C-alpha cells in the first residue's frame, strides 16, 4: 500500500498527498472496542481518539499492545474506558497534530522532535471539513512519511542537478563554517576558472583571483549575514563583492563578476547562504559600447547642428588647417619627449592653436572651439616649463580627441554635401558669412555672454578687402575684437556713470597710402589701458622704471595678460602676441594708443605689395 501510494509523489507534494487512515473511537469507549478495531483492520497504524466529535489524540497499535499492557494487564484494561489510557499517553507528549497542507519534510522534522518513545508513532493530519469517515482528521503512518521524504530528496536532487547543469548564473551554497557545499551550478566552474569548488572555504576560493583584503571583507560579510539578528536587506548594502574586477588564475583573462547573497530559511537545520555569481564582463562591454555609440550619436547631432550655419568653404578650410596643426604638433611632442622643448617652438604652437580657436569661434564651430581650448590647457603647462611626461601625455590625448572631432566633422560635411546634391554649392542653411559680418556677429555674441552691450562698425566693405589679406585679417580681427570685449568694454551702468552711451562701439578703418602702405585702425571706446596699473606690474617685475614704449611692449609679450583668470576668451597672454607675430610675418608693424577711461586703438601698417597673411 505504501509503495503503491507513493508513485505519484513529486517535489511539491505535501502530507495531504500521502495515504491516510480514518478510524476513530470516543474517549469514553471501552478498551475492548479498540482491541476489536485493531483486530478487524490489521493495516491500521493507529486509531483517532475523539471527544464529542473533536480529535484529541491518537493511539497506535504498538502502544496499545506493548505499553498499556505493562501497567494493568490486557484483561483488566479491556473493560476500562480509553480515556484512562489517553491520560498516560499525554504524559509523554501525546500525538502530533499537523495541518494537511504542511510539507512532507517539515512534517518529518516535527515528528522526529517528539519524545523518543513516540518518535515512530503515526501523525494526526487535520484539515478543513469532514472526511468520509466524518471527522476533520486522519492518521498518516510515520514510516510512510519517511519513505516519501526519502523519495522527495531523490527527486529534488535530480531536479536540482538538472537545473544547476543548465542555469547560466553561478549558484552555490555556503554553510555556517563558510565551506562551499557539494551542489553548485556547472557555470560556477567556468566563471571561477577551476573545478575545485566544493569543500573549499569560500574566502580561499576567492583568493585564487582576488586580493587578500577583498577576501577578508567577504569573510566578515558572510559572518555578519549568518547572524539572524542582523537585517539582511541592510547588510546587502555593504556587499564587498557587488562588483569585482578579477583575472582568472589559469588564463589571466580579465573578468567582471557580480556577487549576490541570500540567506536560507531560518527553519533550516543547518543554516546556509545562497551565493549567486554572475559574469557581467560581456554585459559591461555591451553597456559601454551602447553608451559610446549613444554619446557618439549625440555628438554627431550636436556637431551637425553647430555646422548648419557655417559656410562650407570656410569650414573646409578651417578643418584642413586644424588637421595640419594637429599633425605638426604631434611631431613636435614626439621631439619634446627626447629633448627639452624650445620655448619659441612652444610659443609658436600655442599661437597657432589660439588662432584656430578664435577662427572656430568666429565660425560658430563651438565643438572645435572647446577642444582647442582644452588643447591650450594641455600646452600651457609645457609653455610654462613643466614639460614632464604627464603634461606631454595630456597634450597627446587632446590631440587624439581633436583628431576624432575632425573625423566626425568630415563625415557630417560629407553628409551635408549628399543632402545638398552638390559638393560645391552651399545650401541655403549654410550660406556664406563674410569676414566683417562674422566679426560683427562675434561682438554681438560676446556682448550677450558678458552682459556688455556693444556693436561693431566697419568703414571698409567686404569687397574692399584684398583676398590676400583674408587669413591675416581673420586672425588679427578676431583677437582684437575679443581683447576689446574682455579688457576694454565696460558694463552699461558703468558707461552711463562716466557719461558714455550704454552701448560700446568697436570700429575698423582701412586706408591705403600712396607710399605703398595700408593702414588698419581697430578702436573701441571702452575704458582703455590703465597705464598706472601696467607700470606697477612692470616695476614689480624686471622693469624698475619702464618707458611708455616699454609699457606698450608688455602687452604683446607671450604669457602676459591683464585678465584675473583664464577663460575660453582670455587670460593666457597669447592674443596680442599672436596679432604681432601675424603682422610681422606679413612685413608690417603694430602699435597701440590709449587714453585711460576713453579709448584704445591699435594701428597696423602693412605693405600693400606683399602677399600678406597667405594662410
Mind sketching the topology for me?
Blueprint: H1 2-5, E1 24-26, H2 31-40, E2 46-51, E3 54-60, H3 61-72, H4 74-77, H5 82-91, E4 97-99, H6 104-112, E5 123-126, E6 137-140, H7 142-166, E7 170-175, E8 180-184, H8 187-192, H9 202-206, H10 212-226, H11 232-235, E9 244-247, E10 254-263, E11 272-279, H12 281-307, H13 312-338, H14 343-362, H15 366-383, H16 389-420, H17 435-450, E12 454-458, H18 470-488, H19 492-497, E13 504-513, E14 517-524, H20 531-539, H21 548-554, H22 575-585, E15 589-595, E16 599-607
Parallel strand pairs: 1-2, 4-5, 12-13
Antiparallel strand pairs: 2-3, 5-6, 7-8, 7-11, 9-10, 10-11, 13-14, 14-16, 15-16
Main pleated sheet: 5 strands, antiparallel
| Strand-residue proportion | 15-25%
Helix content: 40-55%
CATH fold-type name of the largest domain: Heat Shock Protein 90
Question: What's the CATH superfamily of the largest domain, by name?
Answer: Histidine kinase-like ATPase, C-terminal domain
CATH class of the largest domain: Alpha Beta
- The number of strands is 16
Radius of gyration: 46 Å
Helix/sheet category = alpha+beta
Choose one word for the global shape: rod-shaped
CATH architecture of the largest domain: 2-Layer Sandwich
Strand order of the largest sheet: 8-7-11-10-9
Report mean pLDDT, rounded to a whole number: 80
Q: State the low-pLDDT regions, or none.
A: 423-433, 610-615
Number of helices: 22
Query: How many domains, as an integer?
Result: 4
Q: N-to-C terminal Cα separation, in Å?
A: 104 Å
Amino acid at each position: 500500500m505504501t509503495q503503491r501510494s507513493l508513485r505519484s509523489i513529486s517535489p511539491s507534494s505535501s502530507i495531504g498527498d500521502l495515504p491516510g487512515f480514518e478510524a476513530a473511537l470516543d474517549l469514553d469507549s471501552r478498551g475492548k472496542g479498540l482491541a476489536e478495531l485493531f483486530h478487524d483492520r490489521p493495516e491500521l497504524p493507529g486509531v483517532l481518539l475523539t471527544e464529542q466529535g473533536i480529535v484529541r489524540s491518537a493511539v497506535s497499535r504498538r502502544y496499545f499492545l506493548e505499553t498499556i499492557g505493562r501497567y494493568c494487564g490486557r484483561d483488566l484494561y479491556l473493560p476500562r474506558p480509553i480515556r484512562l489510557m489517553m491520560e498516560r499517553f499525554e504524559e509523554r507528549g501525546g500525538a502530533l497534530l499537523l495541518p494537511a497542507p504542511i510539507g512532507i519534510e517539515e512534517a518529518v522534522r516535527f515528528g522526529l522532535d517528539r519524545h523518543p518513545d513516540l518518535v515512530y508513532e503515526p501523525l494526526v493530519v487535520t484539515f478543513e471539513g469532514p472526511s468520509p469517515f466524518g471527522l476533520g482528521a486522519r492518521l498518516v503512518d510515520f514510516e510512510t512519511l519517511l519513505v516519501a521524504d526519502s523519495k522527495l530528496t531523490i527527486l529534488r536532487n535530480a531536479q536540482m542537478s538538472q537545473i544547476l547543469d543548465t542555469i547560466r548564473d553561478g549558484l552555490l551554497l555556503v554553510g555556517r563554517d563558510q565551506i562551499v557545499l557539494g551542489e553548485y551550478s556547472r557555470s560556477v566552474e567556468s566563471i571561477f576558472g577551476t573545478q575545485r569548488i566544493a569543500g573549499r572555504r569560500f574566502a580561499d576560493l576567492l583568493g585564487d583571483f582576488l586580493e587578500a583584503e577583498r577576501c577578508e571583507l567577504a569573510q566578515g560579510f558572510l559572518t555578519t549575514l549568518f547572524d539572524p539578528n542582523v537585517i539582511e536587506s541592510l547588510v546587502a548594502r555593504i556587499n564587498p563583492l557587488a562588483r569585482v574586477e578579477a583575472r582568472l588564475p589559469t588564463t589571466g583573462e580579465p573578468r567582471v563578476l557580480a556577487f549576490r547573497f541570500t540567506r536560507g530559511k531560518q527553519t533550516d537545520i543547518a543554516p546556509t547562504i545562497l551565493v549567486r555569481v554572475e559574469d557581467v564582463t560581456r554585459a559591461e562591454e555591451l553597456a559601454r559600447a551602447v553608451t559610446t555609440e549613444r554619446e557618439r550619436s549625440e555628438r554627431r547631432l550636436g556637431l551637425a547642428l553647430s555646422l548648419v550655419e557655417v559656410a562650407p568653404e570656410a569650414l573646409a578650410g578651417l578643418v584642413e588647417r586644424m588637421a595640419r596643426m594637429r599633425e605638426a604638433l604631434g611631431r613636435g611632442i614626439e621631439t619634446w619627449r627626447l629633448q627639452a622643448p624650445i620655448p619659441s617652438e612652444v610659443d609658436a604652437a600655442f599661437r597657432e592653436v589660439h588662432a584656430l580657436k578664435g577662427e572656430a569661434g568666429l565660425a560658430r564651430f563651438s565643438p572645435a572651439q572647446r577642444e582647442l581650448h582644452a588643447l591650450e590647457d594641455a600646452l600651457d603647462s609645457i609653455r610654462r616649463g613643466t614639460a614632464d611626461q604627464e603634461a606631454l601625455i595630456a597634450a597627446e590625448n587632446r590631440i587624439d580627441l581633436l583628431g576624432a572631432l575632425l573625423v566626425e566633422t568630415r563625415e557630417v560635411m560629407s553628409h551635408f554635401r549628399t543632402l545638398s546634391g552638390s559638393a560645391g554649392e552651399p545650401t541655403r542653411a549654410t550660406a556664406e558669412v563674410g569676414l566683417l559680418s562674422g566679426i560683427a556677429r562675434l561682438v554681438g555674441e560676446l556682448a550677450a555672454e558678458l552682459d556688455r552691450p556693444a556693436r561693431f562698425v566697419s568703414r571698409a566693405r567686404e569687397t574692399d578687402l584684398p583676398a590676400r589679406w583674408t587669413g591675416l585679417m581673420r586672425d588679427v580681427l578676431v583677437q582684437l575684437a575679443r581683447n576689446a570685449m574682455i579688457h576694454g568694454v565696460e558694463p552699461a551702468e558703468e558707461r552711463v556713470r562716466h557719461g558714455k552711451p550704454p552701448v560700446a562701439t568697436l570700429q575698423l578703418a582701412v586706408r591705403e597710402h600712396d607710399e605703398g602702405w595700408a593702414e588698419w585702425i581697430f578702436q573701441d571706446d571702452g575704458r582703455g589701458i590703465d597705464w598706472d596699473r601696467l607700470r606697477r606690474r612692470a616695476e614689480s617685475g624686471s622693469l624698475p622704471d619702464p618707458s611708455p614704449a616699454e609699457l606698450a611692449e608688455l602687452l604683446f609679450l607671450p604669457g602676459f595678460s591683464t585678465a584675473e583668470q583664464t577663460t575660453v576668451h582670455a587670460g593666457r597672454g597669447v592674443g596680442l602676441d599672436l596679432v604681432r607675430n601675424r603682422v610681422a610675418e606679413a612685413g608690417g608693424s603694430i602699435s597701440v594708443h590709449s587714453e585711460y577711461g576713453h579709448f584704445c586703438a591699435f594701428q597696423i601698417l602693412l605693405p600693400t605689395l606683399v602677399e600678406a597673411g597667405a594662410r
